[in-house]
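Example 265, ligand glutamic acid.
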Amino acid sequence: MKHRLRWHLSLVVVMAAVLVFTGCSSKEDTTLGAIKNRGKVIVGVKYDTKLFGLKDPATGDVEGFDIDIAKALAKKVLGDETKIELKEVTSKTRIPLLQNGDIDLIIATMTITEERKEQVDFSDVYFKAGQSLLVKKGSTIQSIADLAKGTTVLAVKGSTSATNIREKAPETEVLELENYQDAFTALKAGKGDALTTDNAILLGMQQQDPNYVLVGGTFTDEPYGIAIRKGDTEFVTTVNELVKELKDTGEYDNLYEQWMGVKPD
Ligand code: GLU
């Protein structure tokens, strides 16, 4: 009797082990598997960044270059570009949201950096930007050299721009806001002499209000990548395939020109 019980117990242990093992290697554990099981891609995007991801409060639609890349991914993976759920991220919240599993990937004006590579994996570069300055028309600040002692620059928390500006203009005071619309509102309210981030983001702000202009050219390289949970090489490959396909078919150039108003170089 005792033997039989022991035998049964070991069988239960073996079966549990098999379940755990097969569970671990099931499709659910890869981003691609999870997307296919649920039938939609959950993408972290900006809601406040014109040209990349901007929510229209009247319609609720979020539009921009990053959104169109997200739709193309849904089309590639699920055969239908509408099978996406967008979730708002900011520069500060995007990595934690990816790591928590709240989103499958980040397509949100995100620069590939060595530091970030310790936390997430990146696709190949899909957009090339560079950091610049936005000022009120007629401002005495015309380049980074003018950011002397006594000046204040606005930047966004969690962005490379906030880190870079401290290094490139150590005398200026940096005021960090939660997101880009708050930063632009602060600039308009006179809370800073300039706003700093990527040229392409500032271009969107200049379009929103032409009283504000880009000055001084770019002073960093900001290659954008799509961020994926660390270690998911299968999904990195899928996203890289997508970027390549978009470029090969000319779709990438069309989208670029549609949003940026010029052809990519
Ligand atoms: N590309 C820069 C970054 O990744 C600035 C834009 C942003 O804050 O998303 O930090």
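Summary: Residues 22-26 have pLDDT under 50 and may be disordered.
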